[in-house]
Amino acid sequence: MEEQRFGRIRVIPGENGSRFPSCTSLIVEDDVRTIIDTGCGEAAIGHLLEEGPIDRVINTHFHFDHICGNYLLPEAEVWLNRREAPCFRELVNVARLLGVVELDGEEAGERWVKEVAEGSITTAKPTPYRDVRWYLSTRRLDNTYRWGDEIEFGHTKAKVLSAPGHSLGNSFLFFPEERVVYTGDVDMTAFGPWYGSTDGDIDAFITSAVSLVDLEADHFVTGHERGVLTLEEFMDSLGEYLGVIDRRDEIITEGIEKGLSVEEMVSPGLCYPPESHNDPWAYIWDKMTVRKHVRRLVSTGAVGLEMERSSELLKDTEPLSLIGYGFELAADPEPDNGEIDMFLDG
Questions:
Q1: Is residue 216 part of a domain?
Q2: Measured between alpha carbons, how far is 144 from 110 in angstroms, rounded to an integer?
Q3: In Å, how far are 222, 237, 299 from 244, measured between CA atoms?
Q4: Is the pTM of this model over 0.90?
Q5: Do residues 57 and 45 make contact, with C-beta atoms less than 8 angstroms apart?
Q6: Cβ(63)–Cβ(161) under 8 Å?
Q7: How far is CA 305 from CA 104, 254, 257, 266, 298, in A?
Q8: Nearest-CA neighbor of 195 among 273, 111, 290?
Q9: Would you give the distance in Å from CA 71 to the centre of its chain?
Q10: Choosing a second label site near 3 at 20 to 30 A (CA), which of 9, 17, 142, 181?
Q11: Which are the contacts of 68, defined by CB distance < 8 A and separation ≥ 6?
Q12: CATH number of the domain encompassing residue 87
């Protein structure tokens, strides 16, 4: 994957072909020199700093692969969407959103916070669940933005677009003059859509992905592996990408019809191979994905079940309520003249 440029926007490939837990970043070379998502890697960020200071970090969402380089930029302002701001205020909120608390309880979330605070930088696969960069890169938040806001960099402007489904506040950044959109984790990879968390939502993910087609964009910058796609390439890939959801539905439908429990449907591995389940977060995310599919299929009546079996599965897949943790769960209000709300700790 090679670096590309669109006006003042540079596409910075991540380590290992931008494969998770790295990502493709953007650097906007303007009056306010800004990096969008910091998962491109320490070496890439180091090269960017050799060229000049970076004034601002914009994280499209709170996931590790998009924030893990924040700590390398202590002089830059850090911005995150308002809906996920509690993750940077209290790290246990990451565990609440990512399914740890839903499956293993509040104590597991608190225990994880302690582990990462005392941890080290790791190359563990398939997930960086104990990597200290979770802690280091969430220590500071200087500003927040809302869906619908316009962010100015100087000559360059970006529109923040709502992109829920992957995470609670996931956002696309659209540069209308350059006709470029950063799609982040709507990435067109063979892995398929990722929504294996408490704040993930299958139908919202589909809606967000399809909404990209309506933009007046010529280039789609994906967060992982695929790099920059033209409109034609993006359109050609979208059906197959979202088709992964249908294939997962088929697997789960078969399991439900066989009378399998949620645990029995997780065991063979839906998104992650079963040998990866030794990694506790890979197991959690696989189980969360199975739960999402089971609940969606049962609640919509897509599988015909007796009342007792249906009630049992709905009870087994009851999601954690996020009310009371400080998250903004209602739809964002209309932006006030494009102003950005300051993040206030507490």
A1: yes
A2: 25
A3: 17, 12, 20
A4: yes
A5: no
A6: no
A7: 28, 12, 8, 20, 8
A8: 290
A9: 19
A10: 142
A11: 21, 38, 39, 128, 131, 133, 134, 137
A12: 3.60.15.10
For range 115-123, the mean pLDDT: 92
Query: Which residue range forms the structural domain that includes residue 148?
Result: 4-235
Residues 6+ apart with CB under 8 A from 102: 96, 198, 288, 319, 320
Backbone angles phi, psi at 102, to 5 degrees: -60, -40
Are 202 and 245 contacting, i.e. CB atoms less than 8 angstroms apart?
yes
The model's pLDDT over 219-271, given as tens digits with 9 standing for 90+, comes to: 999 999 999 999 999 999 999 999 999 999 999 999 999 999 999 999 999 99
Question: What's the residue count for the chain?
Answer: 346
- Strands, E assignment, the chain: 4-6, 9-12, 25-28, 34-36, 56-59, 77-81, 143-145, 150-152, 157-162, 171-175, 180-184, 219-222, 228-230
Q: What is the C-alpha separation between 299 and 294, in angstroms, rounded? A: 8
DSSP 186-236: ----TT-----STT--HHHHHHHHHHGGGS--SEEEESSSS-EEEHHHHHH
Q: Has residue 23 been placed in a domain?
A: yes
Residue type (1 letter), 79: W
Task: Please say whether the beta carbons of 81 and 145 come within 8 A.
Answer: yes
Q: Tell me whether residue 331 is in a domain.
A: no
330 exposure class (CB count in 10 Å sphere: 0-12, 13-18, 19+): exposed
On whether residue 51 sits in a domain, the answer given is yes
